[in-house]
Amino acid sequence: MARRGNRYGYGGYHGRSRGQGVLKVIIAVLAVVLLLVLGLFFLQENHLAFSSDGAHLSLPFFGGDEVLPEPEVSEPVVVTTAPTPTPTPTPTPEPPTQAALLPRSALKDGTAPALLGEAGANTAVFDMKADDGTLGYVSNLELAKQAGASASDPELNQAIENWNAGNVYTVARVSCFRDNKVPYAVPALGVKTNSGYNWRDQDDLRWMSPSSEEARAYIVDVCVELAELGFDEILLDNSAYPVQGHLEYIKRGENYDQSKFQETITAFYTQVETALAAYPDVKLSIRTEGEVLVSGQDAVSGQSAAALAEHADRIWVDLGEVSLTAAAEALGGTGAEEKLVPILGTAGGAGEAWANLNTTEP
Hints:
Keywords: Membrane, Transmembrane, Transmembrane helix. The protein has 12 helices and 10 strands. The protein has helices at 18-43, 106-109, 112-119, 142-147, 156-164, 182-185, 213-228, 261-276, 290-295, 305-311, 324-331, 336-339, and strands at 48-51, 54-57, 98-102, 123-129, 169-175, 233-237, 283-289, 314-318, 340-344, 354-356. An 8-stranded parallel beta barrel has the order 3-4-5-6-7-8-9-10, surrounded by 5 helices. The chain has a two-stranded antiparallel ribbon with strand order 1-2.
């Protein structure tokens, strides 16, 4: 049967084009994909990580809980310059000791500086325990009070402390066993004669016995009191058994056994040194003779060079016929000569160490 045409002789097309349908499908799919990508971008923004290798998407459902390491940050290079070393100052050498014995009265009356200048000295020495046994200060020791050895001026100790607080170097001389007071008050502490009396030396002065423990303890206590008063140095004089006078009159026995002299005197030095250890700024010095140093010992006194070198910070020495160089060589050790203070009858040279201990009025 023939199809009827329109008035112009051809019929109209009423069907759908296949090509247009496919294109619409593709457009729709792309639109959906675009929407999904945008949605994922906004929803998973917190799971984007950036590193030196670029951006990474870390999703929880793909095991994306792993946190990417923080990018390494290089530390800034710091250039340091070594500090210029501070030069060590050269220590100024101490002037040599130039000592003069001053009267005790100078501790209080203000004359000490002038007297020291007149003597050309830089070190003041005071007889704080004189050969007669008297003390140049007020002591709290019962034996000193019993023997009448202590000073009585209530203002004296304060004056001594004030003086010692100054710039002048001060030395307290202690006549150890040569003591005319204590053996008179307590005869049992004295060196005895064969007849039982107190022995006296060439100057008619008594001596305490170095063998007596009580006598040694008394001297140690005196040294401690002087350290507390502020003296820079304590000089032990007559610190062994007597060597002058009629020694043959001394009673031999337990209190005068020459075989024990050196042991007893060395123990005494140790005892004083130990007691003064609580005062580290106080030097301990001991007086001796040049012959003791070069020979090594004195069998009569009990002193030995070894004990002096071990326990004394400084050694004040009556050189006699011995030279300072020989005494220092005998003493041995580094700085031996600087450890020695030669005792002279007068002032020595300007650049030399010396001490003038001529007796002055107390």
